[in-house]
Write a structure and sequence with these properties.
The complex is a heterodimer of chains A (413) and B (141). By secondary structure, chain A is an alpha/beta fold. Chain A has 14 helices and 15 strands. A seven-stranded mixed β-sheet of chain A has the order 2-8-7-6-5-3-4, with helices on both faces. A four-stranded antiparallel β-sheet of chain A has the order 11-12-15-14, covered by helices on one side. In chain A, strands 1-13 form a two-stranded parallel ribbon. Chain A is globular, with a radius of gyration of 22 Å. The relative contact order of chain A is 0.16. Chain B has 141 residues and is an alpha+beta fold. Chain B has four helices and three strands. Chain B has a three-stranded antiparallel β-sheet, covered by helices on one side. In chain B, a hairpin with a 6-residue loop joins β1 and β2. At the A-B interface, α12 of A face loops of B.
């Protein structure tokens, strides 16, 4: 076995035990993953040796900065298997990527056109479309959630029609870990000539992607969930689509020429990168992608599947203490994120009490209030794993959950 | 240390759920959410001469919010908007500084351990803010 989570964990300064041997058990990776030394070093090296603005300066330092930034684009193009490097637009994060599409592609939509999302979406893939609806008069529809926290793709037949211009759904749920059957979404979209956008914030940390194989049109991801810096994200889109899209933000870098009367815009990706980009963060994101690619992701996935199974089995045993999984009950078609509820204990209290055991989990609605509504809960507690998660982490979590349920839960009382 | 938060007094306040329920014919009903965590309080208020005459709350929230709602249920009768603002300022000082000399009600001491947890301040303040909004809505009407 070449995949060793304990060896990997040693690469993360924040996860190392303190002098007293205490360590944090970090299980909030769906919100933000930790950063390995390789990424920290890449960012620091860039800032120390190549810091300058990009694309304009002719001096050697500026050339070095431009090279580093554009090299990051090449790395990310490889990570997602883009057809060309020009399909990679750097943004400030997945939210910015989604807003970019909602504004830019949105400008080409008319009243009566339909955008289809789902009840599983993060607010960042709901609100931009609501804003677009209010600006342009489009119709916004949503695929419902299944009782086990997946997108109900059986509803595609009912909700997709010739007015549907875009289906924008999550690749992996940030709440339940459910993986979307992308092929079904794409087939439904293609049947009416609609485009497909995937919110890949939760999927991208899992390992290299193949957007061509997924056969989608847009893919949004963010750096800070894939062991990279925050403040950097990516929009991948098919080149031929990007070329037809109007700019979103205006400013420097995105122009070919400007007069007081008008502007001729640069071709993609520059057209969508107004202003000085997050250069060092792009370098850090590339380092994170390389760091992930360097792992045996098949083994990593097997490891995370096994840990998820261990967690789900443990939660099932705690059913007698009022613990209930919110989402799929097994490891099929899901990534290493699991939400749960303890009867009679608010998720905020669950997570605060677990923090006393150095367990870092997120509690609440996870920016997915429509899903909470659909699942009949006000919030959940969520454990989300990463490459450095271990069997011991799961066991410490299960012990903590049992203790909280015993002391504060209402089951059996 | 997070475990310090959940001291007996706070748990007792939450368990007491004083004022839990709904009023039959409130002058105003306020529903307030905590956007951070989805805590929700629905507060029914009846006023007389600008003061709280009756109050009831339905609280779907964490222990801290439940305990704060319980304090409102126990002590809000006779409160006017100006006095509420003073009490809220006192609670804010308690959360910010860990102590406050201007706490109107002894029960509010129970929230002192929240001082070290800024992410939870809004949980404690939600019921107070709901009551403040009730005064505002009645004033506006």
């Amino acid at each position: 076995v070449t995949f060793d989570p304990l060896k990997i964990r040693k690469e993360f300064p924040l996860l190392r035990p303190d002098r007293d041997g205490r360590r944090i058990i970090y299980l909030d990776n769906a919100a933000t993953a930790q950063v390995p030394e390789a990424v920290l070093a890449a960012v620091a090296h860039h800032e120390r040796s190549s810091r300058a603005n990009v694309h304009r300066g002719v001096y050697r330092l500026a050339e070095a900065a431009t090279r580093a930034y554009e090299n990051a684009r090449d790395v990310i193009a490889g990570y997602v298997n883009a057809a060309t490097r020009e399909e990679i637009v750097f943004t400030s994060g997945a939210t910015a990527s989604l807003n970019l599409v909602a504004h830019s592609l949105g400008e080409t939509l008319q009243a009566g056109d339909e955008v289809l999302i789902s009840e599983l979406e993060h607010h960042s893939n709901i609100v931009p479309w609501q804003l677009l609806r209010d600006r342009r008069g489009i119709t916004l529809k949503a695929l419902p959630a299944t009782p086990d926290g997946r997108i109900d793709l059986d509803a595609l037949d009912r909700l997709v029609n010739r007015n549907t211009k875009l289906i924008a759904v999550t690749h992996v749920s940030n709440v339940t870990g459910a993986v979307t059957d992308v092929a079904r979404v794409v087939a439904a979209a293609r049947s009416v000539g609609a485009r497909v956008l995937l919110d890949g914030a939760q999927a991208a940390p899992h390992g290299p992607l193949d957007v061509q194989d997924l056969d989608v049109d847009f893919y949004a991801l963010t750096g800070h969930k894939m062991y990279g810096p925050n403040g950097i994200g990516v929009l991948w889109a098919r080149r031929e689509i990007l070329e037809t899209m109007p700019p979103f933000l205006g400013g420097g870098e995105m122009i070919r020429s400007v007069t007081i009367a008008q502007t001729e815009f640069a071709p993609p990706p520059a057209r969508f990168e107004a202003g000085t980009p997050p250069i060092a963060n792009a370098v850090g994101l590339a380092a994170a992608a390389i760091w992930i690619e360097d792992k045996d992701t098949d083994e990593a996935h097997a490891h995370l599947d096994r840990l998820t199974g261990r967690l789900l089995d443990g939660l099932a045993v705690l059913g007698n203490r009022g613990v209930r999984v919110v989402g799929p009950l097994d490891t099929q078609g899901r990534y290493a994120t699991a939400s749960f509820d303890i009867e009679g204990v608010h998720p905020h209290d669950v997570c605060q009490l677990l923090d006393a055991r150095n367990l870092c989990l997120r509690g609440g609605h996870h920016c997915a209030q429509p899903l909470m509504e659909a699942m009949g809960v006000t919030g959940t507690s969520r454990a989300s794993l990463a490459f450095y998660s271990s069997d011991e982490d799961i066991d410490l979590l299960l012990n903590g959950i049992e203790d909280v349920a015993r002391k504060f839960g209402s089951a059996g009382k | 240390m997070s475990g310090d938060l959940y001291q007996d007094r706070l748990l007792e306040l939450a368990a007491a759920a004083t004022g839990a329920g709904r009023l039959e014919d409130p002058d105003v009903t306020v529903r307030l959410d905590n956007p951070m965590c989805g805590d929700r309080i629905t507060l029914d208020v009846k006023l007389a001469d600008g003061k709280v005459a009756e109050v009831a709350h339905e609280t779907r929230a964490c222990l801290l919010c439940q305990a704060a709602a319980s304090v409102i249920g126990a002590h809000a009768i006779g409160l006017d908007a100006a006095h509420l603002a003073e009490i809220r300022a006192g609670v804010e000082a308690l959360l910010r500084d860990g102590e406050s000399e201007t706490l109107a009600w002894h029960d509010l001491d129970a929230f002192a351990p929240v001082h070290g947890h800024p992410s939870r301040y809004s949980c404690v303040l939600l019921p107070l803010d709901a009551l403040a909004q009730a005064f505002e809505e009645i004033g506006a009407s």
